[in-house]
Structures
1.
Amino acid sequence: MDQPHTEHRPGRAIALKLTAVLLFITMAAMVKEATKEVPVGQAVFFRSMMPIPIILLWLKYRGELREGLTAHNPWGHVWRGLFGSSAMFLTFAGLSLIPLPEATAIGYATPMFTVILAVLMLGERVGVYRLSAVALGLVGVLIVMAPRLSLDAEALTTGAGLGALFTLAAAALRGLVQIHVRKMVSTEHTGAIVFYFSLTATTLSLLSIPFGWVTPTPYSLGLLIGAGTIGALAQILVTSAYRFGAASMLAPFDYISLIFASIIGYFFFSEAPTSNMIIGALLVVAGGVLIIWRERKLGMDLSKVRAATAPKDQ
C-alpha cells in the first residue's frame, strides 16, 4: 500500500475514489442513525473494530501481511491513534447533533488546519496563495456555522451549537493527524498505519463503557456492523485509487461528498441544505481546491498521507 500508484489509469482511479467517497458518506449516515440509540463511544468501537479483520485479509491477499504489520515507530502509531481516535469521537458526536450536509461542509476545514499546523509544527513556508486559500476556507466555515453561533453560552454548548464545535474540533484534529502521518509515511507501511489506528481506537473506545453502553436493537446493531464494514471497504478502495492516479488529481473528488451528503440527508433525515450552508460550503471547497492546486504546483505528492488518513471520521 505504500506506492502512490503503480500505473496511470485515471478512469479507474476516479471510479474507485468516487465509490469510496459515497461509501464514507453512507457510513456517516449509518452512524448518525445508530447514535440515536447507542452512545458515541459504542459507535466508535464498532467502527474501529470491524475493519481489523478486513484489513488483515486485504494485507494477506496482497502478500503484504508481515510488512504491513511491522511497526518501525511504535510511539508514532500511539500518537496517531490518540489523535485519530479523538477526531472520530468528536465527529460522531457532531453527527448526532447537526445535519449530515452541515457536518460534511464543516469537515472540509481539515486542509486549512493542515496548512496552519504545517507552518507551526513543521516550519513549512507558506506563500500568499495558500494563506489566501486558508482565509477563504475559514470564512466559509464561519458562514456555515453562523446559525449555530450565539453569545449565549448555554446555547453554544448544547444541541446543534455544541455539535458544530465538535465537528470543527474534529477537523482540526484530522489536520494534526495529516501532519503526523506526513512524518510516519517515510518509515511506516500504510497498512500498518491503518491497522494500528483501528486497534488503538477500538481499545480506547472501551474506556467509554462506564458511561453507558446499551444493548442495541437488531436494527442499530446492523447499522453499527454495516458502518464498520463499509468504512473498511471504503478505506481499501481509496488506497487502491491512489495506485492508479496521483493525489493531486483525485483530491478534488472529495468534495463530491457534499452532494452525496445532501441527497442522503434530505431523503433519510429530512435535512434540507440552508443558504448559509451552501454559500459557506462553496467558499470552503474553493479554498480547499486552491490548496490542492498549489500543492500540485509545488510538487507536494501526498498520496501516501491521503491513503492513510482518508476516512472522514479519523
2.
Amino acid sequence: MKTVAAALFLFICATLTPESPRVLRAPVWIYLEPVPGSFSESAPQKNPPVEELRETARYILSGMAGGWNFSYVPSDRRRNVSEEFTLVPILPVQSDDPRFSMDSLTPEYPRLTCWAQFTVDDAVARRLNYWESIRFVPGKGRGTGERTRESAGIQDAYKNAVLNAVRTIARGLEKNKPKEITGEVLLREGPRLFADEGRFVAEVRVLVNIREVVPYTLY
C-alpha cells in the first residue's frame, strides 16, 4: 500500500512540474571577412564579428518575439511618389537582456554561425498569444541585400523579404492604389538566409495585421 501511495505521490508531483519555458530560435550567420577589395579610408569601421552577429541576431529575434510596426507607401509614378517601407520593433531585444543568448557559436571560415535564442517571458507570451488568437493574414516573401553592406545587407534582405510579403497582401486590398498602409507584422519561426551571386537572400513567413489603409484624397 505504501508503494502505491509513493508512486501516486511521484506521479502527482510530475504532473505539477511547470512546463519548460518556450524559447524562440533562429539560425544566424555572418561572413568573418569583408568582400575583397571593399576596403577604403572613408568606409566606417567594422565591428568585431561577434558584435555583428549579435546585432543581426537581435534584429531577427525582435521580429519573432514582438514583431514590427510597419508603414508602407506604394510607389506611384503618376503622382511621382517613390516606394517607402519602414519597420520599427515593438518589443526590441536588448543586447544585455538575460533572455537573449547565442548558442553553438561556431567559426567555420568564411562564416561565423550560431543559434540565436530568446526565452519567452510573460510580456512576450501575451504578445504571441495575441498573434495566435486572432486570424491574421499569413504571407511569405523573399528579399535581397548587398553583400558589400555586410551585416547591414543581411538586415536589408530580411526587411525586403517582409516588404515583399506586405506588398503582395496589399495588392489585394484596394482597387485603387492607396497613399499609405500601416500595420504590424510578426516574423514566424524558420527564417532562411543564404548567399547568391554577391547578395544575401532571405526567405521569411509572416503574419500581417493591416491597421489602416489611407487613400489619396480626391480634389
